[in-house]
Amino acid sequence: MCVSLDTLHAGLLRQVCMRKTVDEPRRGFVDGLRKPLRVSFVFGDKTGDYTRDAGVPPLHPGGYLDAADHVMRVAPPLRGFWFRNLPERIEETSRPLPSKKFRKDFLNNCSLFILHCYSLFAILFLSQHEVCCMRIIKAEEIGAAVAGLCVDAACRLPEDVLGALRAARDREEGAARAVLEQILENEAMARAARRPCCQDTGLAVVFLDIGQDVFIEGDVNAAVDAGVREAYTKAYLRKSSLSALSRVNTGDNTPAVLHVRFVPGDRVTVAVAPKGFGSENMSRLFMLTPSEGREGALGAIVETARLGAANACPPVILGVGVGGTMEAAAILAKRQLLRSLSSPAETADLAAMEEEALARVNALRIGPMGFGGKTTALRVLIGELPTHLAGLPVAVNVQCHCARHASAVL
After folding, report:
1. Whether pLDDT at 177 is above 60
2. Any domain includes 36
3. C-alpha span between 215 and 218 (Å, rounded)
């Protein structure tokens, strides 16, 4: 809140002194003072003088503004804000002092005036202060992060994925081992040259976890699309986005597929997962009946791998969402693919279900790139949501061995 010194002075004249003119003083004033009175006020980083004309009595026998101390007692938050340098010296006078009744009225009027101002301060300034205390992040910062993450994700695999591929290579033989060696060599060359690991650089899938104490200044959707546009244009990544029906390419791989959720804190987590459609096309959604239960969900996972893993550039990673609604299960399945392959499941039951599903999928022996072998899948990652008593949605999102994703925290 900003109150000018002129406003403050005028209020003091009306509320505190309550005089019509110098020549018509209120009862309790003594006429004929020869000297003017002057008080210096400090307001924030500004100072100003409040000067009373001659003819006005002093406010304190000792020549000090006694009202300031009184005000600070009734409204201690004001200390150091409006009157932090008061009391100031008032010029001495030899004239008689005002009556006790006048001094009491003066203090009451002064207190009322200050409390009125303080109410305005609380309403206007504090409400703004709460907003200002939120951390402000410009949308352009998010766009810049998206641009960098798109390139990073396209050109190198996460360490957990590389570790799983190396472990698979070590336990395979023959053609399966040779395929995994080529996959690892391809990743090393792409990382060194900063070139895409796969020619299908996918649709840009972006996840934003926005802290509830963050205020984003600007258009988030436009900033994310600008980041994707910049990355796919400047890094010469393949632009695969087009109209679903007319098949006309958008020319810059936008718009991004954007998923936003709000979380506690004052940070923004940005994750980018380019999604190629060789594997995406093999994904499936099942709306099971409650009676099918856990075994029905395991069957859906294995059936998805049986029908589509060979076409999804295995060894694959399966993200599974169980529960929620149709779309909630699908988004949950997609989010599982952001997990580290070494991360545990949320519960012991889910962890056991993941191990059992992985064993059943690898028992299919489709193997790396469909050449047969022990490793059809590197990991099955399962998340669960509460669902309706009449349903059991299960979504299985298939990810190829080139499991690209990168994240940053702003």
Report:
1. yes
2. yes
3. 9
pLDDT given at position 122: 67
Instruction: Name, of 6-10, 77-81, 266-270, the range with top average pLDDT.
Output: 266-270
Q: Is residue 16 part of a domain?
A: yes
Model confidence at 246: pLDDT above 60: yes
Q: Which residues of 174-200 are buried (b: 16+ CB within 10 A; e: fewer)?
A: eebbebbeebbeebeebeeeeebbbeb
Cα atoms found within 13 Å of the Cα of residue 289, Cβ hemisphere only? 2
Continuous segment of H or E residues that includes residue 260: strand 257-263
Neighbours of 281 (CB within 10 A): 11
- Position 141 in a domain: no
Rounded to 5 degrees, φ, ψ at 306 are -60, -40
Q: Tell me the CATH number at 294.
A: 3.30.1330
Structure tokens at 190: 């792409």
Q: pLDDT digit string (tens) for 148-161?
A: 999 999 999 999 99
CA dihedral 235, 238, 242, 246 (to 10 degrees): 140
Calpha distance 394→157 (Å, rounded): 28
